[in-house]
Structure formats: C-alpha cells, structure tokens
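Hey all, quick one. A colleague (J.T.) asked me to put the magnesium ion job into the tracker so the inputs and the structure tokens live in one place instead of scattered across chat threads. No bug as far as I know, just bookkeeping. Sequence used:
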Amino acid sequence: MAEEYKNFIGGEWVKSKSNKTFENRNPADTSDLVGTFQLSSRDDVDAAVTAAQAAFPNWRDTPAPERADYMYRVANKLRERKEEIAKLMTREMGKVIAETRGDMQEGIDTADFAAGEGRRMHGQTVPSELRNKAAYVIHRPMGVWWLITPWNFPIAIPTWKTFPAITTGNTIVIKPATDTPACTAKLMEILDSAGIPKGVINYVTGSGRIVGEHLINHPDIKGISFTGSSEVGKRIAEVTGKTLKRCSLELGGKNAQIVMADANLELALDGALWGAFGTTGQRCTATSRIIVQEGVHDEFLAELVKRAKALKVGNGLDESVEMGPLVSKAQQETVASYVKIGLEEDKAELVCGGHALTDGDCAKGFFFEPTIFDKVTPDMRIAQEEIFGPVLSILTVKSLDEAIEVLNGTVYGLSSSIYTQDVNSAMRAIERIEAGITYVNGPTIGAECHLPFGGVKETGNGHREGGWTAYEIFTEMKTVYIDYSGKLQRAQIDNK
Ligand code: NAP
Ligand code: MG
C-alpha cells in the first residue's frame, strides 16, 4: 500500500476537509504509485493561513540568529536524508538520480546559506545631513507568505523560497505542484523535526487553479512567491495588482547558447548536450536554442547529433541512465505537438529523434527521444515558444551582432551562454544579452544558490530569488531616523 500523505497545518498532519485525495505516480513506470495526497479545498488553505497568522507574532519577535539556528539543524537533517529523498524524487519526478542528488545538495547549500544569513541580515547605516541625528535602514518581516512551486526542482525550489522567508521572520503556507508533492512533504517533516515552532510552516496539496487562485486574494496573505509558467504568473500579477500585494515571479525561458567559430568546440558540445537534455529539457534554464556561427555549423551539428543519439534514456534510478522521462503524459503530449509544429514549419529539418519512446520498459512511462531541429529561423514557433522538453533548435548566424540579436529576439530573458575564446566577444555579449544570467564558456544551466537568480522581460517581474536578494524580497524595508539633539531640527530646509 502506498503511503497516504496529509496536509501539514499548525504543526499537525491532517486530512483535507474535502475527504478527497489524488494519486501521484512515477513517470518512468506508472504502475509505481508514489503516494496519495490530499485534494485540498478552500477551507483547508484558509485553515493554513489562520495557523500561519497565529504563529507570526512570536516568530517575528524571535531574534534572527535564533531563527537561523534552526537552519543549521535543517541542513544536517537534509544531509542525513539526501540519498533517501533523492530516490523518492527520481520516482516522483523522473529526473536521473545524479540530478536528484544535485537537487538535494542545492537544498542543503540553501539551508547553510540561510543559517549564516540570519546572523547578517544587513541593513544600512548612513550619515544624516543634520547634527546629532542618526539614520539607518532595517529589514522587517511581513507576515504570511504564500509559496507556489513547480515540479522540476521538487526540493531546491521549495527551499529557495521557504528558507529565506522564515529566516527573515515570516510564516508560510506552501503548495507544491500536483506532480511532485511528496518531496515537499519530506521537507516539512525535516523542518518540523528541527523544532520549528508550530504554525510557522504549513503545507497544503491540491489544485493550483482552485486553492492557488483562492489564496492570491486572501487578505492575510502579505506576499506571494511563485515559480512556474508565464501564463499563471501573469494571472497572479493581475490579481495582486488590484491590492498592490507583493509578488515575486520566476517564469518561463527560451534560453540560447551562442557558439562562435573560435569556440573550443569540444567544450561547446559538452555544454549543449548537458544544457539541452539534462533534466530531459525540463529546466527553466534549459538550452532550447543553439545559435551557431557559420563555418563551424556542420562540424558542430554532426557531432552533437551523434552524441544526442547515444544518450541512454530510461528509468533514472538506474545509475547508467543519462536522461529520464518527461514528468507527465501531458508534458509528453506537449513535446510531441511541438515536434509536429516544427515539422510543419517551412524549412526546419528534423535531424535527430522526434518520437515518444514506446519500446520495452519505456512503454511504462512518458519517454521521448532527444530531438534536434536544424535550419530553424528566428520567427519559427519552435524558436520562440518554451517547449520544456528535450527539443533543441539550431539557428545559424553570420556574426556576433547577429547572434546577440537572435538571442534577444524572444519575449523571455532568463539564462544565456556564449562559447568563445575571444575576450572582446565575451565582454560585448555580457553587456548586450538581455537575460538575468549569462554564462561564458559554460552551459545555460547550473545556477549557484548564493547568487541572485531570475530573468528579464516576461521571465519575471524584476525580483531575484536566490542569494542575498531573496532576503530583500521577503522583508519590508524601514528607514529609521533618531534625533538626539533635544530640539526640533528641520530637514529639507535650507538652514544656512
Ligand atoms: P505551472 O502550471 O504554472 O504551475 C506552477 C505552480 O502553480 C503549480 O504548483 C500549480 O499547481 C500552480 N498553479 C496553477 N494554476 C494556478 C493558479 N491559477 N493560481 C495559482 N497557482 C496556480 O507551471 P509548471 O508546469 O508546474 O512548471 C513549468 C513552468 O515553470 C515552465 O514555464 C518553467 O519555465 C517555469 N519555471 C520557471 C523557473 C524560474 O525560476 N524562472 C523555475 C522552474 C520552472 P498545479 O500543479 O496544481 O497545477
Ligand atoms: Mg508524479
């Protein structure tokens, strides 16, 4: 019998008032039931907000270094359970075990960073323009945050949001994606066993369209942190725009890797393969376009196709497998529909893959071949729209200027990369690429947790989760003036 997971509200594991549950199955083998989960109702999420609101004053008043102490314990518990949860993650999400270990490591690193950050929480002290007066800035907690996460990083993304949110003194309600609720439940177990007071962290599962949408409007929710599709992100921005509630949005991408003719091609090939087909192309930073300078196109493509065809696809629990399944049937169908769109586009040429894998053990899940289209032009849909699967488009350009123009020619701006050995080209690309992240001689994937993460244009709304900037998102800035002159001093008045 698979485990029945419950919601975590006010420090207790409880069933949904709806009495309904949903199943979560392994996308590599749908006969493997990972668990059943609560199909929460609006009443359940309201109860979670009430618990989080009740826990807030005491947590707010707990000194930040004391809050951060919990994070040391959380980091150690994540370390102890790394292998167990990595295996569960591969079963629930599909990505290969080496990557789910990496996802866990990102959570551990994020906890370590939070543990240190609680002892810093820098404000700023600046001189006042008047005598006998002090001026400084502090960061204050806000209240209850609503955290909504996607399925592609089932531990890393929940930790990116939860750890800075609670270290800065907020309380939270988190709703994981319906495809990956088990890992977040394990994260709650770990936070709870580290002794975090009841009500500070609350976890509910259920439909984003129903409970997700409901809480966006809740008067006791002070902020929303969302990672997911641009479509849902725009909806959240529209609703929160009416109440001016803070929201931090990390959305889609259509990331490109530029390969200049002077690049170390061996390195560029390694980067392209990992960037495009790692996590089965289901990273927000996945490489979905290669922009290659003419002259090296033929050599680069021939070798890339050879290596993509050789990738071992299968169940990610097998250590020798290099690419797992897509997360769901719906995702597999989306990828197939984009291959069809690519085939119908004027001149695009399918040079590798293009089909769902249905032979042998692959028939048990949602597998797809590594797929490459050549002769793609910038206006084609496969060059413009986020596919979120193992589909790579090759675009050929004449110059660096053209490469940057093509790279910038989508509505998104998350990650980007350039392979070149010419420092002048690299510096020009760093300045002119419109993206939140640019790698030089590295693939578009591989962010580190202590640096700001996020994108420009329709990838987000200007916030950067990850790094120290996350600590600004989850706090309200307060400017403090202390006048110790004993008399009324008037600023902004010309006293001279
Ligand atoms: P999604 O459909 O937008 O779902 C994300 C989360 O939002 C899920 O928990 C979902 O719940 C919930 N949700 C759905 N409709 C909602 C609504 N109306 N109101 C509130 N919440 C709602 O995205 P996804 O398919 O899970 O993830 C893939 C997308 O995420 C891609 O576009 C990818 O680029 C993006 N992503 C971005 C980043 C980044 O940092 N920029 C990182 C990872 C992924 P249900 O699961 O119940 O539907
Ligand atoms: Mg699943």
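Adding what we noticed when we looked at it: Residues 255-440 form a domain with the Aldehyde Dehydrogenase; Chain A, domain 2 fold (CATH 3.40.309.10). The mean pLDDT is 97.
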